[in-house]
Each structure stands twice: as C-alpha cells, then as structure tokens.
Amino acid sequence: MKIIIHGGFFSESDQSHEVKVAKQDSLKSIVKKAFHYLETHSAAETAVFAVKLLEDDELYNAGTGSQIQSDGKIRMSASLMNGDTQKFSGVINIQNVKNPVEIAEFLMKEDDRVLGDQGAKNYATKNGFPDYSTETAQRRREFEEKSKNGGKGTVGCVAFDKRGKIAAATSTGGKGFELEGRISDSATVAGNFANKFCGVSCTGVGEDIVSNATAAKIVIRVTDGMSLAEAFDKTFAELKEIDGFAGAIAIDHLGNIQHRDSHPTMVFASFDGQQFEVFE
Ligand code: ASP
Fold first, then answer.
1. pLDDT tens string 68-86
2. Nearest atom, ligand 1, residue 152 CA
3. Which domains are delineated in the chain?
C-alpha cells in the first residue's frame, strides 16, 4: 500500500512561511488519514477520500477555497480514474457544490461519465448534493486585489492498494481570473490518468499539461515498458521544450513513487506505512 498527494505549488516569493508550514502540516495529516483509510478501502475509494479532505481545506485551490474567475464566479473541475476498471469520470466547471470529486465518483456508474457546467450541477442536485458556496473571504480579497497569490493549489492523489490496484483523482478551482468557459486539465486524461500499470495526477498550467498530455503520456510510457523514472524524465524534457509549467505525482504497479516539478515547488506528501516524505 502506498499513497501520494499534492496540493499544487508553493511560491516563496508570493506566499508566507506560515502558509508553507500550514501546507506541510495539512498534507502530513491528510496523507496519514488517507493511508489509514487505504487499509480497508480500494485505491479508487481512497483517492476520492484524500481529495475530499484536500478540497475541504481552504489552503488549496479546490473545493472550499477555489479561485474566482474573471466574471466573479467559481467553477470547479474534478476527475477520478480507476486504473483497475480503466474508467474515467469527471465534472468540468461545476458551480456551488462542496466536493466536486464526490460527483465525479458518483458519475462512475453512468454511461455518460463526464459532465460540464449546468448539466453537471443539475445532475448533482438531482442526486442529492446540496447547494454549497465554496467561496472564502481570502479568495474574494485576492480577486478584488487582482492578485494571483493564492493560485496554483490544485489537489490530487494517487493510491496503490493492497491488491496492487491503482487510482488517481484530481480537483481544481482553475487558474484564477480565467475567461468564462475555460477548461482545466484536471478533468482530462492529460491531468489525471491511471491504468493497471501506473497512475498520475498533475498540477500547473492546464494549457501546458494538455499540450504535453502529461499524465496520459507517463502512464502509456510505463505501460509500454519504460521505468517510471525514465517516463518522468522524457515527459518533463518534452514539457521543457514548450516551456511548460507543471508538476506530477505517480505510483506504478511495482509500487514505485515519483514526483517532479518543472518549476519549484510542488507541494506534496507521500506515505507507504513506513517512509514518509513531505515537500521542503
Ligand atoms: N491545472 C490547473 C488548471 O490549469 C491549475 C493548477 O494546477 O493550479 O486549471
């Protein structure tokens, strides 16, 4: 059993030391809780559990604490990829729900598994997910000051359960100040992908992640026999060619864990029951 989570990026120039320590403490606590959950649940259930805890923490740009877009609204995107069943589900640009990842999980049983905008919200309402505002005073202040300080806090998790099954989940409030209708990478296979061989969750500039097909590429490379470390080397070298900004976390079928960022510093924590790693 292994687990790795991320909470987007931390920038020394934009954010205080207190925020860094708060993110380290929060990630440590969430990765431990999620590992404990993994003892009795599947990789997919655990990925959702971890992402839900991250969405509920206002420190991150996902769920509560999501960024506000250029028209003053919050639109969130989240997805779940179950590597065991090889199925992907997600919501894109949903408004006024507490945990977008829960709706992504709920959609897993449908034929139509990725819903957007009002259709996603209507589906959530019909299935008993209440109206909920994820706006925080801090995000409104940042929006009014036109500051991007709180950005880059997308969250994600890759879990590897005791049966060796892998799942990935990712959730975001987007980039902040984006044009209405802009689509993030987080509910696409570029930002979140898994199969029997590997699972990956990304953060960073969605346009770069989609252009580079980051998560899908890493998973496919591992599936075709490349080591996880080599798959990261090659994919991040290609990202550099387009001057891309991204971070990724992953676990492969051998239980290897990887994390990488194109720019400092992706905020992450991993735990395998013995070894614990948190970003510095
Ligand atoms: N990837 C997210 C997006 O572009 C943002 C982030 O990871 O900070 O919507």
1. 999 999 999 999 999 999 9
2. 8
3. 2-70+150-278 (3.60.20.30)
